[in-house]
Write a structure and sequence with these properties.
There is one protein chain. By secondary structure, the chain is mostly helical. It has a single domain, classed as Growth Hormone, Chain: A (Up-down Bundle), CATH 1.20.1250.20. About 80% of the residues lie in helices and about 0% in strands. The protein is built from 17 helices and no strands.
Length: about 425
């Protein structure tokens, strides 16, 4: 196998930096910080979990609406990097702002979290679309899997530093409150994300594009409408998006709600942080393994494996009671979390026309984000109705089953002999 090129490495390194946001803000430190803030303000545990679910649903809905529109405009020459930069700056700025929000203002925390999440997930739409500009169809599953693997490895470094600071503050070994230790974690995350994004800005450019034309916004809406009408004619693409809509819902919900769910089960903040750190460490080699096995067995077969693992995860989550149970669940998630996301990205990248990558990744985003609305809302509503979060988690099994069935009907993508070779120069 050829070595990874400078463009491929620069693209993958963004995952190294941005994944610190995913673990610290989305999954670990922020949810614990927010839950503590809400509890201190007298908010019931089930209600605070529900409010977090509603918040996730709100910002995912906003991005679902904007994704295809912005993606269509971004397909014009030179526009992809501009849109990526806007969302990147938004995400980094409000991640850093979380460090300055008063602890007793849980509502302002959610507002800053929403803006940071809009930036992070918005930047990822265009980051994902850049994969067609840095590599070829034949190498796409390797590059995508490597990105996720580097993300898991890179995210553990600032996360470990943050855990050490928080634990030392809890043990009163350092003269720092746990609240301020968490704030330092937010700031470290923003800086880490910023620094390791520099290679992408320097070395990755938009190669596939559409030439600009008069009234670009009007023309973009026309192209978007045409694509929306014709997308059903792309049988493999349409079926894959439909399957992705269902199975990625469960994946995203498990990621976004896991820490809040663990808190409701009575797990301590320290236990949760250690478990999540171990999850990142284990997930890195498994993401690479998924990429390697995809080259041998095909991406679709490995997606089947990931979906089956998540069905087991949701079933097991229903019976969670102890820290040991949560450890087992976390390790199961670690085996497939990165692999299923990486191979979904590369599989989709093979199905789309390269010059319209932003537009089609906009649709990829809208299917993923609308799915991400459904899962958290389901967990949130069930938690409030029953007073137990595990019923909502278990109900996600049906989404994985539907996704599996639809995916089985997706034809394998054909490798074009005229693949652009820019990624291996």
């Amino acid at each position: 196998m050829k070595k990874f090129t400078k463009k491929e490495n620069s693209w993958s390194l963004y995952d190294w930096g941005s994944s610190a946001y995913s673990i610290t803000i989305t999954t670990a430190v922020f949810p614990i910080f927010y839950k503590s803030s809400a509890t201190a303000a007298g908010v019931d545990a089930a209600d605070s979990t529900a409010y977090l679910g509603y918040t996730i649903a709100i910002f995912t809905f906003i991005l679902a609406m904007l994704g295809p529109i912005l993606g269509t405009i971004a397909d014009y020459r030179g526009m992809k990097k501009k849109f990526f930069t806007f969302f990147f700056v938004l995400g980094v700025t409000f991640t850093a702002m979380l460090a300055f929000v008063p602890f007793d203002n849980w509502l302002l925390l959610l507002i800053c979290y929403t803006l940071a999440a809009l930036g992070a997930t918005g930047a990822n739409v265009f980051y994902d679309a850049f994969i067609v500009d840095v590599t070829t169809n034949e190498r796409m599953h390797k590059v995508s899997s490597r990105g996720y693997s580097l993300g898991y490895i890179g995210s553990t470094i600032p996360f470990l530093v943050s855990i050490i600071i928080i634990v030392l503050s809890q043990q009163e070994i350092i003269a720092l409150s746990t609240t301020n230790a968490s704030r330092i974690a937010f700031f470290i995350t923003a800086v880490w994300w910023l620094v390791f994004s520099i290679p992408l800005f320097k070395n990755v450019q938009q190669i596939h594009f559409i030439e600009r034309e008069g009234k670009p916004i009007v023309q973009s809406f026309k192209r978007l409408g045409k694509t929306f009408k014709e997308i059903r004619q792309y049988k493999a693409l349409f079926l894959f998006l439909l399957a992705y809509f269902f199975y990625i819902d469960g994946v995203g919900t498990v990621i976004n709600m896991s820490t809040a769910y663990g808190t409701d089960l009575g797990l301590s903040a320290t236990s949760l942080l250690i478990i999540l750190f171990a999850t990142q460490v284990v997930a890195a080699p498994f993401a690479l393994l998924y990429g390697k096995l995809a080259g041998k067995f095909s991406e679709k077969k490995m997606l089947y494996v990931g979906i089956i693992v998540y069905i087991i995860v949701c079933t097991y989550a229903f019976f969670l009671e102890t820290v040991v149970d949560f450890w087992i669940l976390a390790m199961l998630v670690a085996t497939s979390q990165g692999g299923i996301q990486a191979l979904s990205r590369s599989y989709f990248g093979k199905l789309i026309p390269k010059e319209n990558s932003n537009e089609f990744f906009g649709f990829y985003n809208i299917f993923g984000k609308f799915a991400a609305i459904m899962g958290p809302l389901l967990v949130a509503l069930t938690a409030q109705i029953t007073g137990k979060s595990n019923y909502g988690v278990f109900s996600l099994v049906i989404l994985f089953i539907i996704g599996f069935i639809i995916l089985s009907r997706v034809p394998e993508p054909k490798t074009s002999p005229a693949v652009d070779e820019v990624g291996i120069n």
